[in-house]
Amino acid sequence: MLRHALVSLLLFISASLFADDDIYVAKEKDQYNTEQEGLFDGRLDNFALQINLASYHPGNASEYNQFNRGIGIEYYYDYFFIAGGYFWNSLYRDSFYAGVGKEFTFGDVDWVGLGAIGGLITGYDDGQEPRPALIPYLFFTKDRYTLKIHYLPEIGEVEDDAFGFALRIKLD
C-alpha cells in the first residue's frame, strides 16, 4: 500500500513537472524551424501604392516639367519600408528609383509626421546611370490615404531645389 502511494506521488510530481511539455515542444519547433519566411509575408495590408503627382521648382518653374506622373510600390516592415517605382522627372525623362525609408510621427499624433527615403535614382545627367539620393518628406495621413510632400535637393542637371507631391494608398 505504501508502495502504491509512493508510485502515485511520483507520477503526480512528474506529471506536474512536464505539464507544459507541449509549450516547450512548440517553442523548440519554432526555434529550429528550417522553413524561412520570404522577404514578403504576403500580407496585403503591408503594401501601399504611391502615385506621383507633381513638383514645384521655386527658382525656375518654367524650365522644368511640373507634372511628374508616376507610380511606385511600398512594403512596410515593423521599423522601416522598402520602395521602388517609376516617374516622369523634371527633365522630361524616365526615372526609376529604389530605396529604404523610415517614418516618424509626433507622440500620439499619428496623422502627421516626417519621413525619409534613401536609395538609388536614374534619369539625371547620365541618363539611366543610377545615382544615390536621400529625400526627406512631410506626410499627412487620413485612413488609408497619405499626402507626401518631398523636399528634392538639386540633382544632376536640375540646378534648382524642388518640392514633390505624391499620394500613398494603403492596400488593406
Please, could you describe this protein's structure?
- The protein is an alpha+beta fold.
- It folds into two domains: 2-31, no CATH class; 44-170, Porin.
- Helix content is 16%, strand content 47%.
- The chain has helices at 2-17, 21-31, and strands at 47-56, 70-76, 81-88, 94-106, 109-121, 131-142, 145-152, 162-170.
- The chain has an eight-stranded antiparallel beta barrel with strand order 1-2-3-4-5-6-7-8.
- The protein is globular and about 40 Å long.
What is the terminal separation in angstroms?
A: 67 Å
Largest sheet: 8 strands, antiparallel, barrel
- Helix % is 10-25%
Strand/helix succession: HHEEEEEEEE
Spell out the key features of this protein.
2 helices; 172 residues; globular; Porin; 2 domains; alpha+beta; eight-stranded antiparallel beta barrel; single chain
Short structural description:
With 172 residues, the chain is of the alpha+beta class. It contains two helices and eight strands. The chain has two domains: 30 residues, no CATH class; 127 residues, Porin.
List the SSEs and their pairings.
Layout: H1 2-17, H2 21-31, E1 47-56, E2 70-76, E3 81-88, E4 94-106, E5 109-121, E6 131-142, E7 145-152, E8 162-170
